[in-house]
Design brief:
It is a single chain. Helix content is 38%, strand content 21%. The radius of gyration is 16 Å and the shape is globular. The protein is α/β, with parallel strands linked by helices. A 5-stranded mixed beta sheet has the order 1-3-2-4-5, covered by helices on one side. It has one domain (24-135): Glutaredoxin. β2, α3 and β3 (82-88) form a beta-alpha-beta unit. It is built from 5 helices and 5 strands.
Length: 136
């Protein structure tokens, strides 16, 4: 018995497959990196006891790519109580509005209630660690 997928489902599957295979969209293995992971509301809420940093990342942004590579390469230096959430700048419009984000490659250190403690543009792991250290 052959089944025909509805056009909407077919397009969704094609888009998901294409996005996953695009450079810069590969987040495979990030789940294993406890201190650096893709943003989801559930993961963000679950990390409430840690220092949380939102990294508003865009796949088309060269500075974001460099920051991503820096964080990934030096992840072992990240304190165990700090979690960096790689947040999709193009898709997380409500989150951008909530934190007043106007451009990519912006970081936000967030408290347990979700309020921004510090917001800065640019940098990488060194700046994340400096912001987290000031909060301690």
């Amino acid at each position: 018995m052959n089944r025909v997928l509805p056009p909407t489902l077919t397009l969704a599957l094609i888009a998901a497959t294409a996005t996953a295979s695009m450079p810069g969209h590969d987040m495979s293995g990030m789940d294993d990196m406890k201190g650096y992971q893709p943003y989801t509301k559930a993961a963000f809420d679950a990390a409430k006891g840690s220092q949380r940093v939102l990294f508003f990342h865009a796949t088309w942004c060269p500075n974001c790519k460099r920051a991503d590579a820096d964080i990934t390469k030096n992840l072992a230096k990240l304190p165990a109580d700090v979690v960096v959430f790689k947040t999709d700048y193009d898709r997380e419009t409500a989150l951008k509005k909530q934190y007043g984000i106007t451009y990519q490659h912006t970081f936000v250190l967030v408290d347990a209630q979700g309020r921004a403690l510090k917001k800065w543009a640019g940098g990488g792991l060194k700046e994340i660690m400096a912001a987290a250290a000031k909060k301690m």
